[in-house]
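Input (Integrase):
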Amino acid sequence: MIEEDLIAYREDCTEHRESPDAPATWNRRRATINGFYDWAEAEKLIDKR
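Output:
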């Protein structure tokens, strides 16, 4: 479920908004999201599948 949510969020940010994120903006946003999920997995707050 998490993967599908992230894909939908990416599509919204980069394609469906009135002013979509530029690629560099999305890359920064994605790095933050990935860092959060890596931390949450390391803390055993989520199972990354």
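The CA atoms of residues 3 and 37 lie 11 Å apart.
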